[in-house]
């Protein structure tokens, strides 16, 4: 990263730098991996590049399907150019299959297909450990207006429809995923952050006998090993599929 670009923000997996244009930023994907609110940390060479490439292709796909995103283009192997946004402090999680915290907090068994997508909303706050939050609490805290929350939920459902089909085409099951949104300079709501194996649960559909093989950050969370190999496999399938439909 050139020295004349100011570091604006550094998160667990990305750095955000200033851009020559005031309404744009440069986002660099890091090789760091974190889990359990950063209680577990490690670094994997090549992870940042893989997440950058995967996110870029998915943002391109969503943009072609009329989903407004902050993505403007790839700058380098590990960086993208994006619209500068004010992040809404909410994490929108959509679940197609029961797994993870949903099963720990309810009596639903892991792997149970959900009759319809379930949306859980979490307050983006590390000090509070990103708690599950209700619509009434969102309104009480004046985080955003109800019409904007409805728009975000509608966009999340649309993203799910697009990504479910896309991932099925490359033999991956979209179990669940997390999205973040923000406002740009025109006060428009855009999909932001990233869409990668870091914030999507993806199971390999090529496996037999209903064996669950995770190709996502669960390989790090659950000490399964092979994180880079899994991310690399996803990137390869995406590129092969995109090239086949050109």
Describe this structure in words.
- By secondary structure, this protein is α+β, with helices and mostly antiparallel strands.
- Helices cover 30% and strands 29% of the residues.
- The chain is built from 6 helices and 14 strands.
- The strands form 4 sheets. Strands 1-2-3-7-6 form a 5-stranded antiparallel beta sheet. The protein has a 4-stranded antiparallel beta sheet with strand order 10-9-11-14, with helices on one face. A 3-stranded antiparallel beta sheet has the order 8-12-13, with helices on one face.
- Helix 1 packs parallel to helix 6.
- The longest helix is centred in the middle third of the chain and has 24 residues.
- 34% of the residues are buried.
Give me the count of strands. 14
Helix- and strand-based class? alpha+beta
Structural Rg:
18 Å
* Strand arrangement, major sheet: 1-2-3-7-6
Q: Percent range for helical residues?
A: 25-40%
User: Which residue ranges are poorly predicted, with pLDDT under 50 across at least 5 consecutive positions?
Assistant: none
Q: Give the SSE order as H and E letters.
A: EEEEEHEEEEHEHHEEEEHH
Strand content: 25-35%
Overall geometry: globular
User: Please, how many helices?
Assistant: 6
How would you name the oligomeric state of the polypeptide chains in this document?
single chain
Query: What is the overall pLDDT average?
Result: 95
Largest sheet: 5 strands, antiparallel
| N- to C-terminal distance | 32 Å
